[in-house]
Structure formats: C-alpha cells, structure tokens
What does this fold into?
Amino acid sequence: MTLLDGVYPFYPQQSKAAVFNISTIIVVVVFLTLACSFLLIIPGIRGRARLYWTLRVLLSLFVGVVIVVVQFTGDWETGWVQANTSYKSFSHAQVNADIGLHIGLAGLNVTLRGNPVEQINETINYNEHFPWSFGADYERSYSEGLQKGLPSPILYVAEKFSRQSPCAVHSQYRVAGHYASALLWVAFCTWVISNILFSMPVLIYGGYMLLVTGAFMIFSLLSFSTVRNSPMCLIQIGTRTLHVAYGGSFWLMLAIGILCFVVGVTIVAMHHLSLDLLKTFFDLREDKAEEYQEMPEVFINSRFVSKGLSPSQPPETISI
It folds into this structure.
C-alpha cells in the first residue's frame, strides 16, 4: 500500500474543517442590521427616553437572536478527549489528536484535530456534520463518510448515533431535537407579539407574553433533556473515554429563559405598583402638566366672526 500525495489511493480527497455555519451567520447579520438601524435613529430621541429606548431595543434584539441562533448551533451537548488512536482503516498509523463531539438540535458534529495538526504527512483538522432532523438522512451521511474515507475516530463516534447502533439513541435525539426546535419557534412568535404589545398602551399583556416566551424556552430545554433518561453508550477512543455534558447553547437558553421570567414578572408587578414609572420607561406616559395647563387668552377680531355681528361690537375675549 503506497501513498499518493499523502493520501491513500482509496480515499478520494481529504475533507476540510467546517469553520462557519451559514444559517447562523445569516441570522446574526439580520439582527445586527436591525440593531445598527436603531442606533442610527437613536440620536433623534431626546432626554432620558434615549437611554430607555436603547436598553429596551438592544435587550429585546438579544433575546430574539438567541432564540433563533441556538437552533442552528451544535453545542447543546459537547465533549472532548485527547487520545492516541488509529487514523484510518487498513492503516497502522497512530496519531495524537483531540476528538470532539458537538450535539445540536438538528444533528451532530464530530471534530478531529491533530496534536500537532501536521502528522504523517497530512493535515489532521476535520469537522464533519451528520444531520438527523426530519427530512434529513443520517444513514446516508454516514455512508458518504465511509465512501470518502473519513478518519476512523470520526466514523466510530458517528456510528454510535446511527439507527443500527445498539446504543439506540438516534431516535431519542432526533425526536427531542425536533420538539425542542418547534417550541423555540413558538417562543420566537410570542417574543414578536410581546414587542408589539410593548409598543401599545397594554404593557401588562406584553409582560404576560414575555412570561409565555420564557416558559416555552424552558419547555424546549426540558424536551432536549429527555435524552438523558436513557444511559449513554461509552465512547471509547484508544484508552480514553469521551464524555458529553450540556454545552453553551443549553446554558445560554436557560439564562435567557430566566431573564424573560424576571423581566415579565417585573413588568406585571410594576403595572400594579407603579404604573406611571412603567409608562415612563416605555415612553408611554402622558404629560399631565401639559394636559391640564391653562392656555393663554386668545383675542378674536369681530370682523372675522359671523357676518350677523355688528361692526360696532368690541372684540371678544375667549378663555380656554
């Protein structure tokens, strides 16, 4: 068996590491555009209301972008291990590498990064995605990985989550991810409704919808957590074991869900305890000083009044 440009002949090409998620970039760009557009008009808002508007809009946009972005991230569960392992099938070559497992709502990513990256005349830096969302074919992605000749650690980890694996976790992750994503889209809709209500003089209902938004976010976390009800198969790589734990997206969703609860409860409480202060924060408070202020006297020339009035009548004085 000989090498052809550093690659075994039965491997068509080396895979490149995936760096960016296009869907995540699109969502972030959209929300950044909205934020920048608001920052352009913020100088036109006078007084303390400028600070209130900035706080409300930026906080609301942050909640919205998190709800959408986490559906495309791959770190709801993550795990890393460093081990000496065989590189590819039909080869006795051993490499020292970091193997990472990143589980999202729509699939998983398996990362293989060499220590150092350049070993056995190859660049060992892989990040392969295997989708399991409804409409995606996990088994086909796994078969394509076999045909491309992916490194053995990647295929080994991906095989643990296949439908034929004795671990039997494929269906659980697929269903849990599907319902978690559906709940997050409902949370996004309630977030939009809450923003509409906050722009109207019905602030308490906006607070209620914010509580509903937080509730659906927590429900999505509970849906994803159901995969922990069954024991996870050991992922043994060399002499080391790969363990997974909740990742950044999971804890970020938990924090934002709690934030929505806190803000929603605060708005409802202020509606009953200090409505004027709440209206001031949302720039909906009517200036009662101007409402009840007496207007100055207005003098009306009689020649502009009805023709039936006598020209000799003096100008009338009307007080409002």
In short: Residues 1-19, 287-296 have pLDDT under 50 and may be disordered. The first helix runs from residue 22 to 41.
